[in-house]
């Protein structure tokens, strides 16, 4: 189908306008235009009512309620964020969970980005590097305070059989603290 010369001209003009070039006609008379100034005094007015829509605001101010549960509940749920370290037969995993059980931040030596830099995905150096990664991810998520008590009370006990496990936990704990995350939540303010 052949295009006529008139349609080709319209098509070319449309392409020029689409690119922003357009057709401009110059005039021989110069005109001075004064732009009206914008009144900025409206921007300085502060709203009398302020509504904070940040759902974690009370947690950061240490005013939010912590779920205590029953005295017989184990493990205790009295925290806003808890850091857990789990060691399986082949990997080490760490995650931060809320008191309702939702996982907020996680890291594992199963992840290829972490695994490729490690000699072994379950050793002491793996725990140390996992602690560095968890600290960085927690700070990026806005979590500065976490509860890192042992979920199982006998994890921190030191005898000959659990010495290796204890060094794993201590190295992980040290790396997270060096990364800038405080491993103790602030006391709740009762008002």
Topology:
Layout (H helix, E strand, L loop, with lengths): L4 H14 L38 H4 L20 E7 L4 E7 L4 E6 L3 H4 L8 H18 L21 H16 L13
Antiparallel strand pairs: 1-2, 2-3
Helix pairs in contact: 4-5
Q: In a nutshell, what does this entry contain?
A:
This protein has 191 residues and is of the alpha+beta class. The protein contains five helices and three strands; from the N terminus they run H-H-E-E-E-H-H-H.
What does this structure look like?
The chain has 5 helices and 3 strands. The longest helix is centred in the C-terminal third of the chain and has 18 residues, at 124-141. The chain has a 3-stranded antiparallel β-sheet with strand order 1-2-3, with helices on one face. By secondary structure, the protein is an alpha+beta fold.
Distance between the termini: 82 Å
Adjacency order of strands in the biggest sheet? 1-2-3
Q: Give the percentage of residues in beta strands.
A: 5-15%
User: Which structural class do the helices and strands define?
Assistant: alpha+beta
Instruction: Please give the number of β-strands.
Output: 3
Anisotropy-based shape: flat
| Radius of gyration over all CA atoms, rounded | 31 Å
User: Which consecutive residue ranges, at least 5 long each, have pLDDT under 50?
Assistant: none
Number of helices: 5
Helix content: 25-40%
Biggest sheet record: 3 strands, antiparallel
SSE ordering? HHEEEHHH
Jot down its keywords:
about 190 residues, alpha+beta, 3-stranded antiparallel β-sheet, 5 helices, about 30% helix, about 10% strand, flat
């Amino acid at each position: 189908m052949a295009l006529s010369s008139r349609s080709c001209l319209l098509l070319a003009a449309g392409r020029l306008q689409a690119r922003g070039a357009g057709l401009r006609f110059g005039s021989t008379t110069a005109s001075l235009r004064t732009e009206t100034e914008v009144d900025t005094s409206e921007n300085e007015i502060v709203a009398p009512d302020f509504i904070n829509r940040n759902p974690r605001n009370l947690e950061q101010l240490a005013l939010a309620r912590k779920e205590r549960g029953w005295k017989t509940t184990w493990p205790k749920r009295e925290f806003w964020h808890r850091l857990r370290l789990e060691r399986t037969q082949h990997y080490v995993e760490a995650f931060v969970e809320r008191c309702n059980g939702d996982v907020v931040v996680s890291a594992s030596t199963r992840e290829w980005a972490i695994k490729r830099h490690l000699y072994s995905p379950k050793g002491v150096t793996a725990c140390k590097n996992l602690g560095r990664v968890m600290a960085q991810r927690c700070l990026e998520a806005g979590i500065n305070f976490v509860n890192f008590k042992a979920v199982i009370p006998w994890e921190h006990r030191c005898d000959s059989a659990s010495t290796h496990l204890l060094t794993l936990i201590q190295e992980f704990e040290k790396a997270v603290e060096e990364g800038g995350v405080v491993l103790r939540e602030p006391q709740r303010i009762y008002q």
